[in-house]
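Table S5 (text form). Sequence records supplied for joint modeling of the two-component complex.
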Amino acid sequence: MVDIDELQKKVCLAKEASRKLAYTTTAVKDAALLQIARRLRADNERILVANQLDYADAKASGMSDAMLDRLLLTSERIDGMAKDVETVAALPDPIGEMLDMHTLQNGLQIGKKRVSLGVIAAIYESRPNVTIDIASLCIKSGNAVILRGGKETLRSNQVLAEITQAALREAGVPAAAVQLIENTDRSVVSELLKMRDTIDLVIPRGGEGLIKFVRDNSLIPVVAGGIGVCHTFVDASANLEKAVHIVYNAKVQRPTVCNALDTVLVHKDIAQVFVPAMAQELNKAGVEFHCDGASLPILGKLGGLRLVPAVDADWGKEFLSLALAVKVVDSVDAALEHIACFGSGHTEAILTENYTNAQRFLNEVDAAAVMVNASTRFTDGSQFGLGAELGISTQKMHARGPLGLKEITSYKWIVYGNWQARS
Amino acid sequence: MVDIDELQKKVCLAKEASRKLAYTTTAVKDAALLQIARRLRADNERILVANQLDYADAKASGMSDAMLDRLLLTSERIDGMAKDVETVAALPDPIGEMLDMHTLQNGLQIGKKRVSLGVIAAIYESRPNVTIDIASLCIKSGNAVILRGGKETLRSNQVLAEITQAALREAGVPAAAVQLIENTDRSVVSELLKMRDTIDLVIPRGGEGLIKFVRDNSLIPVVAGGIGVCHTFVDASANLEKAVHIVYNAKVQRPTVCNALDTVLVHKDIAQVFVPAMAQELNKAGVEFHCDGASLPILGKLGGLRLVPAVDADWGKEFLSLALAVKVVDSVDAALEHIACFGSGHTEAILTENYTNAQRFLNEVDAAAVMVNASTRFTDGSQFGLGAELGISTQKMHARGPLGLKEITSYKWIVYGNWQARS
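The corresponding structure-token record, covering 846 residues in total, follows.
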């Protein structure tokens, strides 16, 4: 059951707070963030107690070990969260930046001023550190935030939200700028997605089901992403030794995240040499190969590998595990075609020494990040120098790729007149 | 009845064409635009014949004179359309611009490259010149476009779309990049709004009903605007003579457009002097005043004015006519509060000599354009130097204010590596 009045009230309080937060000075916002960090460390015990209750319930409900590990907080992890908040405090404040200020022929001085969006609703799943991540990025960028985490971490999130609100109050920022929705029923999300007069942006973070639900039901603009079906095309001219190293890194270094490699496309001219070399290296990490008709016989000869004939569903699949689809292609055109067909618009890479193919790939692939001779794992807010990220957008509207502070802002046109009228 | 297969086919053709158009050179796109301009002039007669048929039907159906005038094309207007296309051809191409290219500590060279969005669906009403406006801006920015105009101008739009497609073919650009939807049933719009895999952006242009329908029903990102409830606050320190001039211009110069003034807020300290002076000047143009309780008695004494006591619905109303709501406020705070409550996020202005009030207004008002001592009529793509506009966005996501060429683009991250792997 959703108490819509109660929900509406929280969102309205956030909206009201967002108006103050929009022109709160950097010094005050940073002070609030440093207070959050301080309180996370000071209230360490309280957070651990709440998290243990969440953990015990989740374990009793039969949650997988991998998920349980995501849910678990430790003193070290809490300290890590505090450090992340301090990192956000140290980032430059995007708000107030003046862009393209110039004077028109009629003497009007105009430019764009970067402003906050207003109220951001974050709908996310299990990891409790996301609560602090999102809250700190929103505060720094002058946005109020509605936090709607998963039910598995409700008690952890309650304590974390209380700490955040206390820190805001202490710094003189309206505490209502951070609102935790404690009702974890999915119908609450449906109601939130209708509140377009008070919520300016919805950011879903989680699995494909959650993202699809939000996209299908939101009347509010959504910036979504996180689904990364990443390809790497190994061209005929690639340095094969280096290519094995890059493919290994992209697949193995952290297979459970969205920028990990899913499908390797190999030019036919080097397939007989590259595919076995790659497979032997990746096999050391226990990678399972889902092979197309051309690569399967090549690897079948080797023995000792985990081989599966690829099925249709393997192309365009985000594995999030030590599985890799392997396909031999005839040309760079065939690789481009495959990526256009099966990519999710996240990260695509070519490994090549051919200048023209590199340029074509950069120009023609339509994705948030397109790379030459680098691991897809680099698509990340910290790696790209944004300091932190709220997620990775795979859409083209508003912001694409890692969502840093600037990506959750808007702008307004500022016009300094001298009593001009239009003729 | 909607033939969904037929519709889907057109949209898919546009998507396919958009992939070519995305990296068509500026020279080729400009050649296509100049061909459109040439053909508009050469096919002048054919356009006029089609338009006369539309006009006759519209007249027979009882369309108002104002609407008939918007629908009507003449040789001069067609020449004006051709000139507008030439203007777009002469604008700098936004596509391919590299933003923030820099080298990371690990040697990766990264930056953002401006790219087209893909396929834009424009849903609009009556004026046939909009067909050419939108098509030319989309072509220049490398986007394919689905045109869905009103039924009143269908025959004019058919000829204009044919001319555009012929020009594209002649220049070697896929003609499928411009698709006219000839079925003018509203259910077609509903179907288009579901096609999020092929359409990247929907731009509704028209009345409030159309915009609301699109927003309520679209699964695709929408950039909407056009509803302008514009306020001008005349502060106690304003130069009253200049203020009358600005208010006159904002209200009278072109009352039927979105950046025309709707409500004037007058500081109480100057109301007894300013309100009559303003009213007498605006009365010359036939303005009708919708007065609050404080301004009504002031103007009632004068005689000869068109006065109406303001009703609740007058606050936040976009008049689009020679009507002006007048309200006396106690302070800059009261003015800010009124605007926060009733503004539509389009354009808001303060007339003042008080530096602090000017700065507060610029900081605190949340609108696409915020002005000091200038007419709200300046919020416009041409006036702001964007060269042309697709509309004016009153939302905060993606683009705000006038939508020029850059505002209908996205970007992708480009990464030039040197065989880096993530550690």
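Note: Chain A is about 40% helix and 20% strand.
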